[in-house]
Amino acid sequence: MDETWELRLAKNERFFRDANEAAEHESGRSDPNFVCECSRRGCIARVSLTRPEYEHVRADGRRFFVAPGHENPLVEVVVEQHESYSVVEKIGIAGRYVDRHNPRDGAR
Asked: What is the block-wise mean pLDDT of the chain (108 residues), using blocks of 10 residues?
């Protein structure tokens, strides 16, 4: 796989994670809807998670939530499957990139 392509996918996913972090911080709601954090160009799928589910995913800088069927086995592995979303963990270059740019670690 092309390293540049893998980083582009990771940057897309990081963008949506950062947007969801901002939405979660601003919402004040207990069960907000979030944007799918997949690497698909133009994806506008919404994912509903409870606050504990959201925090569970955010506990690991390499993990993201995606709508069912939006997994990309080239840059991630499915670590959990739920009825309305999957939790994926980035691997390889993409995994290292998103882990270094985890907003919960203060790295940007």
From this structure: 75 79 68 84 89 90 94 93 95 86 66
Sheet holding 86-90, edge to edge: 63-66, 86-90, 76-81
> Alpha carbon of 70 to those of 16, 43, 63, 73: distances in Å?
14, 9, 14, 10
In whole angstroms, give the CA distance from residue 2 to residue 19: 26
Core vs surface per residue 61-91: b (16+ CB within 10 A) or e: bbbbbbbeebbeeebbeeeeeeeebbbbbbe
> What SS3 state is found at 17?
helix
Strand partners, 76: 90
